[in-house]
Amino acid sequence: MKRLSILFLLAIALSGCKIALNGASIPAEMKTVNVQVFENNAPLVVPYLSSQFTEELKTRIRNQTSLSINANDPHGVFSGNITGYSVTPEAITDNNNPVAGANRLTISVSVKYTNNLNPKQSFEETFSRYKVFKLTGSLQSMEQGLIKDVTAQLTEDIFNRAFAQW
Fold it and tell me: How far apart are CA 94 and CA 42, in angstroms?
C-alpha cells in the first residue's frame, strides 16, 4: 500500500500538473509579459499616479508569478489608461453646517490585456475601486497612502482577471 501511494505521488509529480497557491493559472508556455505605461487621462490629474499604478502592476506580476517583464515579443501585454480619479463626500455629519464626515477616493482604469498565446483569454475592461476615509488634516497629506491602497485593489482585480481563471 505504501509503495502504491509513492507511485501515485510520483505519477502526479511527473505529469506536468501546475499547482499554484496564489490562485493564478498561468499556462506553462507563458514566460513573458509587457506592462505598458498607463497614461493618466482622468479629468483630475495626480502627477505621479500614472507611474505609481504602472509600477504596482509590474510588481504584483513579478511577486506572484514566475513571468518576466519584457517588451520584446511578449506572450501577454497589459495596456490602458487611467480614466477616472475623484474625491467625493460620502457622509454629511451635520445638516445645519454640512461637513463631510467621510470621503471617497475613487480611481478607474481602462485595461486591455492581450494574450498572444491564447487570444480567447484577452479582454478589454474597465476596473474601478475606491476607499472611504475620514479626512484628518489635509487631503494632500493623506493622498499618497490612499492612492496606494486603491491601486493595490485595482492591480489585484486586474491580475485575477488575467491569470486566475476560477
Answer: 31
